[in-house]
Amino acid sequence: MKILKVAAAAAMTFALATAPAMADDKPVVGLVMKSLANEFFKNMLEGANAHEAKRGDYVLKAVGMQSEADIETQINAVENFITQGVDAIVIAPADSRALVPPLKRAMEAGIVVINFDVALDEKAKEENGVELAFVGPDNRGGAKLAGDALAQKLGKGGKVVIIEGNPGADNAHQRKMGFEDSIKEGGLVLVESRTAHWETEEANTVATNILTANPDIQGIMAANDSMAIGVVKALESAGRSKDIMVVGFDNIPAVSPMLSDGRLLATVDQFGQEMAANAIDIALDVLAGSPKPQGWVRTPVTLVTGEK
Amino acid sequence: MNVEATGLAQTAFTGRKKLSFKSVLREAGIGLALVALVIIFSVTTEHFLTANNITNILTQVTINLVLAVGMTFVILIGGIDLSVGSLLALCAVVAGKAISLDVGVPMAISLAVLAAVLAGTVCGLLNGAISAFWALPSFIITLGMLNVARGAALHISDARTIYSFPSEFNAFGSMTLYGIPVVFLVALMLALLAWFVLTRTVFGRLLYGLGNSEEAVRLAGHSVFWCKVAAFTICGFTAGIAAIIYMARLNISSPIAGVGFELNAIAAVIIGGTSLSGGRGSVLGTLLGAFIIGVLANGLILLGLSDFMRQMITGVVIIVAVILDHYRAKYTRN
């Protein structure tokens, strides 16, 4: 541990020494995010900008991508940050495997790397000989909170449907597993589990069709709020809002009226706005000489319901 | 210049085309495929042929039908419009901003509809004018517009979902008339209008002529430029209408709405027998094509097939439909 500390300190002096032109000698933090077209990351960026202004002791350089699957852009962003000689890279990886080698290069260049939001793949880290902690929410545990709220309302034997996120996306997978945990524990019956690719219109169509095939379902678990909105609209059109309950994930502003009038039973907030800011804090602590974080640093997730 | 083109240039002057046996046969094939799908799903699933599900299918094909009608105009002249999905998002966001204005419900709704239609029409006009003026492939111009419109939608909305529209507006999205969704009736009227324009007006016949031979249209003394601009403008206009339907149905405007919708619209047009190289096809075919896609999506979920199987089968149906069309085209030519 001590060696690491010395190495980090050495890396910092090195970075400072080689980049004397950096403004006010403040450490530079490169923030690499996923799609800024996504409300969640947009909020996160705003949180990070506010954090930079508030702390005032570091310089933030943020990069987002055009779409969720734009792995190439993220890899380029990491490489550009290495070239620029930033002090720390704080990254929400678009792919949990593909980003490991470039991040390894960054660490070898003496840059402090903090992985947040989506965890890098354990096996890929092992294969590349990278040791890196993860700072982020428990998507599985969060989904279980929402799933449990539904299970509590329905009781044993309640028939439910899961609307999944993008197949292959890690957070989609984690949330699905969280819902399945609730189903198992609460004695619910899973009738169907289908993807609507995080999208409102598709969720609306999929939910309508599932409802046609299974008119007796009682609850629907959507892996994000955009899809939950589509589901709620599907139930309204079918005149089933009263007897079928819906839970979502993310707590986006658009669901707040649905929460207060009960069309949405519950959603989950993982405080995206603070997530990047927290990760930056950890990076700055390490730069200032604190030990590197280990394993999984969990960030808070909370259940949000309409009841005040 | 081939004989068919000359014929079409001539029909441009008479402005009419007789309903021949061959042209009926062209759509009959697609119609039969649709009937076959309906029979298969009616037999294999319990809920397919119920009044409720039919209402659902009509709602579910509506947006794609509207976009596909516009796309038919563009594909008929041998062009393509990849921007309609993004245009839908841009129109929805602009309309979402307008409908949130505090000017009274009727005024806000009117402004929203106007804003969506205007935004779509202007972008379509730009697509057409740029690709026609510099004689550039519409594929690349509309690919550019895809990015411009998506970026603009995200910029205007600050990447946030716009929500809480007036309940009157929301009600329109789920209103039905004898079990037929009103939004579908809007789409159907649009399709009828398009059918009339394409088959019963000089302008429509010119578009067919343009798809076969620009030279023929030019020699006949018509402006190729303005015909092309009009086709793309109509396509943009339909994106505006589709945006309003999207908003009424879901009660939100999302800047990330409509990703990939252009591909579904193109698929509906091509399955419907319109040739990708232009000059051949019909709105009736497009209507049937949109229904094949919609019925397939609905029926495969009712069957309980997995997501991945569903995606594969949809792909296979598109390929088979185009192969069938190849033979049909060969047969009708001989």
From TrEMBL, chain A:
<feature type="domain" description="Periplasmic binding protein">
    <location>
        <begin position="29"/>
        <end position="289"/>
    </location>
</feature>
<dbReference type="Pfam" id="PF13407">
    <property type="entry name" value="Peripla_BP_4"/>
</dbReference>
<keyword id="KW-0732">Signal</keyword>
<dbReference type="InterPro" id="IPR028082">
    <property type="entry name" value="Peripla_BP_I"/>
</dbReference>
<dbReference type="InterPro" id="IPR025997">
    <property type="entry name" value="SBP_2_dom"/>
</dbReference>
<protein>
    <submittedName>
        <fullName>Sugar ABC transporter substrate-binding protein</fullName>
    </submittedName>
</protein>
<comment type="similarity">
    <text>Belongs to the bacterial solute-binding protein 2 family.</text>
</comment>
<feature type="signal peptide">
    <location>
        <begin position="1"/>
        <end position="23"/>
    </location>
</feature>
From TrEMBL, chain B:
<feature type="transmembrane region" description="Helical">
    <location>
        <begin position="57"/>
        <end position="77"/>
    </location>
</feature>
<dbReference type="InterPro" id="IPR001851">
    <property type="entry name" value="ABC_transp_permease"/>
</dbReference>
<feature type="transmembrane region" description="Helical">
    <location>
        <begin position="133"/>
        <end position="156"/>
    </location>
</feature>
<feature type="transmembrane region" description="Helical">
    <location>
        <begin position="252"/>
        <end position="271"/>
    </location>
</feature>
<protein>
    <submittedName>
        <fullName>ABC transporter permease</fullName>
    </submittedName>
</protein>
<keyword id="KW-0472">Membrane</keyword>
<feature type="transmembrane region" description="Helical">
    <location>
        <begin position="24"/>
        <end position="45"/>
    </location>
</feature>
<keyword id="KW-1133">Transmembrane helix</keyword>
<keyword id="KW-0812">Transmembrane</keyword>
<feature type="transmembrane region" description="Helical">
    <location>
        <begin position="176"/>
        <end position="198"/>
    </location>
</feature>
<feature type="transmembrane region" description="Helical">
    <location>
        <begin position="283"/>
        <end position="302"/>
    </location>
</feature>
<dbReference type="Pfam" id="PF02653">
    <property type="entry name" value="BPD_transp_2"/>
</dbReference>
<keyword id="KW-1003">Cell membrane</keyword>
<feature type="transmembrane region" description="Helical">
    <location>
        <begin position="107"/>
        <end position="126"/>
    </location>
</feature>
<feature type="transmembrane region" description="Helical">
    <location>
        <begin position="308"/>
        <end position="327"/>
    </location>
</feature>
<feature type="transmembrane region" description="Helical">
    <location>
        <begin position="219"/>
        <end position="246"/>
    </location>
</feature>
